[in-house]
Amino acid sequence: MSNIVANPEKYFRQFIPDRDSLWIELEAEAQHEKIPIVGPVVGELLFILARTSQSKKILELGTATGYSAIYLAKACEMFKGKVVTLENDRDMAARARQNIQKAGLEDSVEIRVGDALAEIAKSDEIFDFIFMDIEKEDYIRALSDCQRLLKRGGLLVADNVGFKDADEFNQSISTNPEWRPVSFFAYLPLHSPENDGLCIALRQ
Ligand SMILES: C[S@@+](CC[C@H](N)C(=O)[O-])C[C@H]1O[C@@H](n2cnc3c(N)ncnc32)[C@H](O)[C@@H]1O
């Protein structure tokens, strides 16, 4: 007989991390408007990874309403760190700006409006932590610039790698000696979608 709790999905919902009302508002808005956001479990994971790695310069590809950017900004606030987040939808970027202001984090987050792939291709800023959350088919196209822009010993987190469109990225990062990745499929309550893959990779 299995030692796993009965109904693990129901069981693990009781451990969804507590969070401020702004995040809860953004979750409700995202559900209503079908905006894919990471939700509180992956948000908290991003916070813990960024905080424990003492990341000061964080890059995010794909801002949406600023939900994950707020987790990342709170993680690096105590190190006087900064999040640069890239969003190609002007209206979404304006909403994120408002939400980041509401969170009082406007000095810690810079939202750049434009194509993330074009932005990273022309950048030479070095980051401690990169969170990838744009179109999944573009992950493979972003990978070599992320490799160039992430410091050795830095972390790359890629969301939604359970999507078929992330397959080329998954295959590539798992065989590239510049990376030490772990990729897994999990039940992630309130993540969009709740059953999905994540990749966490150390830049070697
Ligand atoms: C999955 S959502 C991001 C969710 C956000 N990271 C969160 O969890 O709160 C993806 C966002 O990336 C934006 N996006 C998609 N492709 C992009 C690109 N090439 N450059 C910049 N933004 C892009 C979309 O407009 C969308 O707002």
Would you kindly provide a written description of the structure presented here, covering whatever features stand out?
The structure is a single chain. By secondary structure, this protein is α/β, with parallel strands linked by helices. It has a single domain, classed as 3-Layer(aba) Sandwich (Rossmann fold), CATH 3.40.50. It is 41% helix and 24% strand. It has eight helices and seven strands. A seven-stranded mixed beta sheet has the order 3-2-1-4-5-7-6, sandwiched between helices. Strand 6 and strand 7 form a beta hairpin. Helix 3 packs parallel to helix 4. The radius of gyration is 16 Å and the shape is globular. The termini are far apart. The mean pLDDT is 98. Bound molecules: S-adenosylmethionine. S-adenosylmethionine binds next to helix 4, strand 2 and helix 6.
Order of helices and strands: HHHEHEHEHEHEHEE
Biggest sheet: strands side by side, in what order? 3-2-1-4-5-7-6
CATH topology: Rossmann fold
Total of domains: 1
Strand content: 15-25%
Rg of Cα set: 16 Å
Rounded mean pLDDT is: 98
CATH level-4 homologous superfamily: Vaccinia Virus protein VP39
General form: globular
Ligands bound, unique: S-adenosylmethionine
What share of residues is helical? 40-55%
Number of β-strand runs:
7
For the terminal residues, how far apart are their CA atoms?
41 Å
Ranges where pLDDT stays below 50 over 5 or more residues in a row are: none
By CATH, the architecture is named 3-Layer(aba) Sandwich
Largest sheet: 7 strands, mixed
CATH class: Alpha Beta
